[in-house]
Amino acid sequence: MCRPTEFRVTYAINPWMDPTRPVDGARALAQWESLVAAYRALGHAVDVVEPLPGQPDMVFAANGALVVGDVAYGSSFRFPERAAEADAFAAWLRSLHVEVVPATHPAEGEGDFLVLGHVVLAGTGFRTSLAAHVEAATVIDRPFVTLELVDPSFYHLDVALGVLDDGRGEAPADIAYYPGAFSLHSRRTLRELFPDALLVTRDEALAFGLNLVSDGLNVVLPQEARTLADRLHQRGYRPMPVELDEFLKSGGSVKCCTMELHA
Ligand code: ARG
């Protein structure tokens, strides 16, 4: 994760960002600290990468790479505003002894690559390119499933789809998604692969409910996604709501702030 000391909205590269709307820096920092505290209380280890001066979106660490085991597929940001982040995340991962293969096509890490035990779900349409899906599959030894995003409000896969259980434990893989964010053929793919998935409404998705981090039991999600939290509870999960609304001003929430180091 990356402390949001540089976090601001100074440009607009997604429909949520409005540079005329101020960010409360102290509040953002407190909210981010509470997310870190929530992870630690659940027993997860949190490492932090040093923020680069003048990179307001680096707090969204999910975008920094796709990491599985000791190998990572690096990022190559779609917009020049974020380009400098890629090397910073790569250098940090190398310091943790992760081998980083740089992307030669637009690729935004876990914003568009979601890792399950048997497959990586890969989003395209706004940020990560199709060519990056092919390239990433040569680096990460798992089948990749391309999913096409069609609604600009859901410009990254991790705002349209949340992994509830990656299927590496006893339970089968389980996901939640908002069908309207996907093209018709991608909806069909998701229906085929995950017939029992939790389908969420546009409102739940607009509350960034799908931008969640789950360990297969505890699901950390933004507190605004109340309906989704109730439905997760009914499904046997433990929803852990957190207050993270300062980051919504930049089009991000729980998952965006979190790069998971997958085993
Ligand atoms: N302002 C950032 C951008 O548009 C938000 C990134 C959110 N990250 C994510 N994983 N969805 O790039």
**Small molecules held by this entry:** arginine
| Percent of sequence in beta strands | 15-25%
Number of helices: 7
User: What is the class in the CATH system?
Assistant: Alpha Beta
C-alpha end-to-end distance: 17 Å
* Number of spatially distinct domains: 1
Q: What is the CATH T-level topology?
A: L-arginine/glycine Amidinotransferase, Chain A
CATH architecture, please? Answer: 5-stranded Propeller
Broad structural category: alpha/beta
| Helix content class | 25-40%
Segments where pLDDT lies below 50 for 5+ residues? none
Q: Overall pLDDT, averaged?
A: 98
Spatial arrangement of strands, main beta sheet: 3-2-1-13
Note the run of SSEs as H and E. HEEHEEEHEEEHEHEEHEHE
- Main beta sheet: 4 strands, mixed
Instruction: Give the CATH H-level superfamily.
Output: L-arginine/glycine Amidinotransferase, Chain A
Task: Describe the 3D structure.
- The structure is a single chain.
- This protein has 263 residues and is α/β, with parallel strands linked by helices.
- The chain has one domain: L-arginine/glycine Amidinotransferase, Chain A.
- It is built from seven helices and 13 strands.
- The protein has helices at 25-41, 85-95, 130-139, 184-193, 202-206, 226-234, 245-248, and strands at residues 65-68, 71-74, 99-101, 113-115, 120-124, 144-148, 161-165, 174-177, 198-199, 213-214, 218-222, 238-242, 261-262.
- The strands form four sheets. A four-stranded mixed sheet has the order 3-2-1-13, with helices on one face.
- Strand 4 (113-115) and strand 5 (120-124) form a beta hairpin.
- The chain is globular.
- The two termini are 17 Å apart.
- The model has no long low-confidence stretch (mean pLDDT 98).
- The structure holds arginine (ARG).
- The site of arginine has 16 residues, from loops.
